[in-house]
Amino acid sequence: MRCIKNRIEHKGSGEVTLCPDEPEDMWHAYNLIRPGDILRASTIRKVTTEQDATGSTRSQRVHLNLVIRVKNLDFDPQSSQLHVSGQIMNETQHTKIGQYHTLDLELNRNFTLEKEAGSDGEGSGWDSIAIESLKDAVDEGGKRRAEAIAVVMQEGLAHICFIGQFQTIMKQKVEMSVPRKRQGGGDHDKGMNKFFKVTLETLLRQMEFNTSVTSGANNEAVRPVLLASPGFVASGFQKYIQAEATTTTPGLKRLLPSLVVVHSASGYTNSLSEVLQSPAVKSLLADTKYARETKLMDDFLEQLRKETNKATYGPREVENAVDQGAVGRGGGVLIVSNRLFRSQDITERKRWVTLVDRVRDVEGGDVRILSSDHESGKRLEGLGGIAALLTFPILDEDLESDAE
Amino acid sequence: MSRHRIKDVGYEDDDYYSDDGYASPDPEEQEFLQQCTSAVLSQLSAGQPSVTATKEEVQEALWHYYNDIEKSVNYLRGKKEKEAVKQKPKAAGIAVPAFPASFPTAHFSAADFFRDCPWLNVPSHRKAEILIEPLYPRLGLLGGAPENGGKVSKLAALAAARKKKEGEKAPTPAGTPDASSSPKPSHAPSPDPQAPLSLRERLAASGKSTSKLSEGSGLRRLGKSSSSSSSSSSAPKEPQPELKSPEPLPEPVDDSKAESEPQETAPNIRASPSTFASTIVGTAGPTTAEPSHLHSNSADLLKLYGQDAEPFDFAAPSPDDVVLNAQSTAKGFKSNTSKSAGKKGQSDLAGGMKDLSVEEKVTVKSKNLDVLAEYKKSNRKRSANFVVIGHVDAGKSTLMGRLLADQGAIDKRTLDKYRQESEKIGKGSFALAWVLDQGSEERARGVTIDIATNKFETEKTAFTIVDAPGHRDFVPNMIAGASQADFAVLVIDSSVGKFESGLKGQTKEHALLVRSMGTQKIVVAVNKMDAVQWDHSRFEEIEQQISSFLTTAGFQEKNISFVPCSGVLGDNITRRSEDPHASWYSGRTLIEELEDSEPYTHALEKPLRMTIGDVFRGGVQNPLSISGRLDAGSLQVGDQILTMPSGETAMVRSIEVDSDLSDWAVAGQNVVLHIANIDPIHLRSGDVVCRPSSPIPTITTFTTKVLAFEHLMPMQVDVHRGRLHVPARISKLVASLDKASGAAIKKRPKIVAPGTVARIVVEMDHAVPLEAPTRIVLRSGGSTVAAGLLE
């Protein structure tokens, strides 16, 4: 995402003009835009006019620049589309103030987002979290690492996932019934071959891989493809692709160097974390946010396992720990899922923003905001969306009692 | 004009009869009827309240009951008894024509009497006065069962209601006692039973009714010789209402007219109309050329009734008759035909829809066996399933290959072939394992990937081997195998270093898993003893370590046994070792230990449950087959089964128990079901087969009491139950529990330490067929984190 114009004032109100240029930018926009904000974007609106004399109607689609006050957001991660609906605030030839409209944000089309600092408590303005996500969203130098594609599979089951910087999208699931091995039956091998065939077709379709030989001329970079499975399924799949490349579809040869076979415990997306931690993948995706987040979660769970009481999770428990000053300088880390900031309820959002600000500015602790659309974020979700590594052990017996 | 009318009606009638086949009684039917009649009569007289009935009554009853002798007897008896009770009033009713005797004859004026009664529309209160109780109760259509015998069938109720209605509405053709047997009883009730009948049955029934009718005619003094004589005969048999006057009406009026119709040339022998008749209707009409001096009078009279009709002719059907006919055609017959037509239409439509279906439905006839009784008397050999577990490369498959080879379950030629082929790829030592490792990948890599089942028999027991993979990646497959087993054989590699690494690896995990899945008995085969020169101290060391571990895992001391053996050589497996170094061992061989197992009981009486282990094509004749072990209940060929969570039904075409065809199967058996009428897309391994009548519930969240093997916290796990393998997450740690008492020690713990028992809530993304009590295994990141019982 490129920042075209930035006019954020100190008090927290102001507007930015952004231009999304990658599908993932829609996810950023989804995190930035909150209900109550003012959004300006160009759009197409179907305008229906009524002929006075006859009562017949005529509808036409017109290009408009509309300003709306956001009411609702609808994000489709599979196709990376963001629909923002709200009430129109500017009057045009075709629209009236107060009419409803849904803006579909489009790639390479600017939109302007204005947040109002609520002196009267309306809206939260550009708070620290919003500024941070804006920084995350704006990728000035184009340094962003290419993402990877992971195929997590087991016999008869494959999940094709796109691992991005900020989110993991489960693109497609391939499920087939593969006959088990039987006495004197060759059905298993046949079934596996069919399964590989379908999986490969699906994978190529998802990554929009052109299998024709000539298309390799432009030498576009192929994203790394991680093949992960328990046992020998992944290596079998790799072999299958190699065989296909040498026999039927030579275009696949360009894909071969980017294949990486790693181990995973199962064919479900649960085991993605294991995939991301494998040494082969770490070298590939060393500096992605994902890898850092995964590491952080592992550290946290390790502390939890050791039962040192230096790790805690759950909204109440973490707030309690912060109150006691345990999430401070010298190792205190607050881990928050960004789902908490997406809350429709402004007071809820404010609660977490305040907590984050307090830890960062007052207590001097570290704050990590995990993407809820990553596997590590999902693990955090299981713990209530918020967790903390503490500087000193806290026994939370008292909390037990009032939780009753 | 009137002539025209006669003809019209006549044709109609004609059609009506011939349509129904009344005119052609079937001689066979007749004979059968006679037989039934005599049977009924004899039963009636033989029965406790001995009653007598006329032949006609009996036949009537038989006809109504479709020749059901028993019901007819029942009905007739009931009726006769009732009749006997009210003999008196009835007799009176018959003796005195229902018309009020007190009617003042002297003052009789037709005009007066019928002033408020327009033709064809006699008010109902009038009708009631002249209604005569029919000869037999009309309600008895299907009420043959004893009156107090429960509720009336729907059809009977409907018939009764209709009868009642007709009784009210019908313009009392039964003015005279003679006419009580109007065509109505034969027409009106008949369509009712006919509705659901096929055409053939209908023909037969009408044939019967015709015969009955003709037989009954004489008795009922219908005054006509045969029902086959058309309109003219049926028309005048109903004297019109006016004739119901107390004055005795000369019968010949009817008769002569009836006769006169067909043969006009015959000499006119009939008497002139009675004064009354002449007065009331004028002359005899066109058929009789005799002039009447009353003609003009009658016309006037008729005008009095508001009917400026032409002189009435007795040859035509009486107005009442017309009404009656019309009604019976409209209400009784027509409505019924239309109804039956409607029904037929519906069924045709349904049939048509069925024909539209592309699928070819296979129907298999169920033998309706009492499976449990069959099972009890089948006297099968004792059977036992055991799973072979242990760390990877402990020699599980080889040991079992040896067992099968020595037991003769696998022939020498095959074995030689395996030996040759395995040597060709440089894995000669894997020859025996190839007996069970049939997969090409398994053979190439020398690792068991999926479970393999095989069977062999000793004199006492039929065994089913489930050979489980030892590699940690295939623990899900091993869980599937263990869920099919009654007891376990733990294979341990005794060679130096291997035992130790195995203990850390899957030896422990497998043992814990089989224990947590409910296995009580475990046989420990200390394998590869030849590699350590049958070192006694090594064996003792292993025995000591393993037995202490197994007892802590929850196995009872008496259920653990140890056998030192060598799978490659076959020592101490089916035969004693001849190696002098092994002479210290005097215990039982592996096969003896296996035979020592007690018979296992299974939940035969419970509703059917079977977890699908595999879905495959069973061959040309069986395009779709599923295999698995019946967890509970029983099954037979032809049964309808339901697969969950898809909720689709299928039909069991045939059953294989231990690869032999069988008509039935019970819990505990490993079966292959060849099924039909289902799309394979609805079947996945891990699905549960049950009966449509008692389906297994599908759930997305459950509470379970688990024993933690590793730290538990809210996290993502995989849930395993047999072949079922689904992703899930622990959403809540409810409490950690005391191991012995099960009482909560700490509520809402943050984390559950290994070795503790806890109650947790697990959520899944998709609905999964699970029901309490069932044993589940939770795994995460490739290791087993907990095992427990669903609550």
Automatic annotation (TrEMBL), chain A:
Secretion signal, residue range per the UniProt entry: none
Where does this one sit in the cell? Answer: Cytoplasm
What Gene Ontology molecular-function terms does this entry list?
metal ion binding
Q: Which InterPro entries match?
A: eFR1_2_sf, eRF1_2, eRF1_3, eRF1_Pelota-like_N, Pelota/DOM34_N, Pelota_N, Ribosomal_eL30-like_sf, TF_pelota
Ranges for domain eRF1/Pelota-like N-terminal come to: 1-139
Cited SUPFAM superfamilies = Dom34/Pelota N-terminal domain-like, L30e-like, Translational machinery components
Cite the entry's keywords alphabetically: Cell cycle, Cell division, Cytoplasm, Meiosis, Metal-binding, Mitosis
Q: Which cofactor does it need?
A: a divalent metal cation
Q: What domain of life does the native source organism fall in?
A: Eukaryota
Q: What is its main location?
A: cytoplasm
Q: Which GO terms describe its cellular component?
A: cytoplasm; Dom34-Hbs1 complex
Q: Name one GO biological process term.
A: cell division
Q: Which Gene3D superfamilies match?
A: 3.30.1330.30, eRF1 domain 2, Pelota, domain A
User: Record keywords: Nucleotide-binding included?
Assistant: no
**Family per UniProt?**
Belongs to the eukaryotic release factor 1 family. Pelota subfamily.
Q: What is the protein's known function?
A: Component of the Dom34-Hbs1 complex, a complex that recognizes stalled ribosomes and triggers the No-Go Decay (NGD) pathway. In the Dom34-Hbs1 complex, dom34 recognizes ribosomes stalled at the 3' end of an mRNA and engages stalled ribosomes by destabilizing mRNA in the mRNA channel. Following ribosome-binding, the Dom34-Hbs1 complex promotes the disassembly of stalled ribosomes, followed by degradation of damaged mRNAs as part of the NGD pathway.
Q: What is this protein called?
A: Protein DOM34 homolog
- The scientific name of the source species is Penicillium antarcticum
TrEMBL record, chain B:
Q: Which SUPFAM superfamilies match?
A: EF-Tu/eEF-1alpha/eIF2-gamma C-terminal domain, P-loop containing nucleoside triphosphate hydrolases, Translation proteins
Which residue ranges does the record assign to the Tr-type G domain? 381-608
Q: Its GO CC terms?
A: cytosol; Dom34-Hbs1 complex
What would you give as a GO molecular function for this chain, any one? GTPase activity
Instruction: Provide the reaction this enzyme catalyses.
Output: GTP + H2O = GDP + phosphate + H(+)
UniProt region (Disordered), positions on chain: 1-28, 162-294
- Where does the record place Low complexity bias? 211-237
Instruction: Return the Polar residues bias intervals.
Output: 263-294
Q: Where in the cell is it found?
A: Cytoplasm
Keywords noted in UniProt: Cytoplasm, GTP-binding, Hydrolase, Mitochondrion, Nucleotide-binding, Protein biosynthesis, Translation regulation
Entry coiled-coil feature ranges: none
The entry assigns this protein to a family as follows: Belongs to the TRAFAC class translation factor GTPase superfamily. Classic translation factor GTPase family. EF-Tu/EF-1A subfamily.
Spell out the subunit comment: Component of the Dom34-Hbs1 complex, also named Pelota-HBS1L complex, composed of dom34 and hbs1.
Recorded protein name is Elongation factor 1 alpha-like protein
